[in-house]
Amino acid sequence: MNKISLIIKREFLTRVRKKSFIIMTIIGPLLFAAMMIIPTWLSQLEDTKEKVIAVIDDSGMFTNNLPETNYIKFIYLKNESVNNLKVDFSESDYYAVLYISKIITYVPNAIQLFSDQQPSFGVKSHIEHSIEKLIENEKLKAAGIDKDILKSIDTNISIRTIQWNDEGEEKESSTEVAMVVGYIGGFMIYFFIFLFGSQVMHGVIEEKTSRVVEIIISSAKPFQLMMGKIIGIALVGLTQFMLWIILTTAIVSITKTVLYPNLGAKDSQEIVTQNILSSKSISQSQAFEPQQMNKIESIFSSLQNIDFPILFASFIFYFLGGYLLYGSLFAAVGSAVDNETDTQQFMLPITIPLIISIFVMMNAIQNPHGDIAFWFSMIPFTSPIVMMVRIPFDVPGWQLALSMGLLVITFIGTTWLAGKIYRTGILMYGKKINYKELWKWIRYKY
Question: Residue 226 and residue 231: Cα distance in Å, rounded?
Answer without folding.
Answer: 9
